[in-house]
Amino acid sequence: MPDRSRRFKRLWNKESPVKYLLIINGNDPETVWNALRFGSAVRSRGHEASAFLLGAAVEIERLGNERFDVQKLLLRFDELGGVVLSCGTCLRVRKMDAAAVCPMSTMDDLARLTEEADRVLTFG
To answer: Which of 33, 50, 83, 84 is 20 to 30 A from 105 (CA-CA)?
Structure first.
């Protein structure tokens, strides 16, 4: 049996930063909150992180409650250098404007981000 501790250490000892793409597709406050927590954690570890809001996730400015402070984590992720983009079509369907921290974007941008990412995670 291989030495599990050695294998585990290899996972945590990346020499170069990893590029993460978080695709958030939903407006459940806890799910969005956890996605932003993860994004902030990887930014704090020196990795790159981008988030793309699809579907109901573009409603991010309206999300959150006392238990899951989505707005606080969105600002933290932004302050740490994370990038959040909103699907333009999803915004138009809802007759919404993009949030100041989450500019309007396109599927071409999502395709490019996916191509450039080392890891893609979906939430929602």
So the answer is: 33
